[in-house]
Amino acid sequence: MTGKIIEILKEGHIVIPKILLQNYKKLKITDKELIVLIYLLGNNEFDPEKISNDLNIKLTDILKLIDSLTNKDILKISVKSGKVCEEYINLDELYNKLALTMINEKQEENKTTIYDIFEKEFGRTLSPTEYEIIGAWQDNYPENLITLALKEAIYNGVKNLRYIDRILTEWHSKGIQTESDIKKEREKHTKKPKKEVFDYDWLNEND
User: Fold this and answer.
1) Cα separation of 171 and 140, whole Å?
2) Nearest to 89 by CA among 124, 62, 60, 119
3) What fold, for 114-190?
4) Measured at the alpha carbon of residue 196, what is the angle toward residues 190 and 198, in degrees to the nearest 5?
5) What's residue 198's pLDDT?
């Protein structure tokens, strides 16, 4: 693969988007398809024979690669209208996919993970063991419930995972899944029992 790219670069300068090299596999682009795409970045004329000769790849293989890239919505063959209709490779779909990849990566970078929330509340970095425990919780409990259990522990002035684990176990046994369920459970424990009022007739009390 490297040799092919070097051959292309020697023929002239082609600007290859770094994000394409980093993410082509995520777009399900094969190594051979990538070589064709890199070539087309510098020359979008749809001339299968020329592409075949320049890349030293069989014409039948070039046609298969272009067909595969078309089916993957990476490129499409468009027609220039004029005196003579000419076909060319349109890479707009590729750029759209790369733009979406960049947006998603940026969102992932800015996304606050549950581990970040714990570290912020604890005021320190989590240990590897604590990472494993929280990861195990995620296999058994919804993430929002874990966050609520953390808030409950902080509310009670406790900052350790063992206490939070007890909270999650208790909530699970009681079927608590949402913040609304937690509020209802709290109300059960905060309701004061009604004082019993004795019906006593003091006026007619016998001496």
Assistant:
1) 12
2) 62
3) Arc Repressor Mutant, subunit A (1.10.10)
4) 165
5) 46
**Average pLDDT, rounded, for the chain:** 83
Longest Cα–Cα distance in the chain: 125
CATH assignment of 2-100, among 3.20.20.150, 3.40.50.300, 1.10.10.10, 2.40.50.140 = 1.10.10.10
Looking at residue 200, its pLDDT comes to 43
- Percentage of the chain surpassing pLDDT 90? 43
Query: Higher model confidence: residue 84 or residue 149?
Result: 149
Q: Is 170 helix (H, G, I), strand (E, B) or coil?
A: helix
Instruction: Identify whether the C-beta of residue 12 lies closer than 8 Å to the C-beta of residue 42.
Output: yes
Whether 100 and 119 have beta carbons less than 8 Å apart is answered as no
Q: Which backbone phi and psi does 128 adopt, to 5 degrees? A: -55, -40
Q: What is the pTM of this model?
A: 0.51
Spans of all domains in the chain: 2-100, 114-190
Residue 192 falls in which region: left (phi positive, over 0), alpha (psi -120 to 50) or beta: beta
Q: With a cut of 90, say whether residue 163 has pLDDT above it.
A: yes
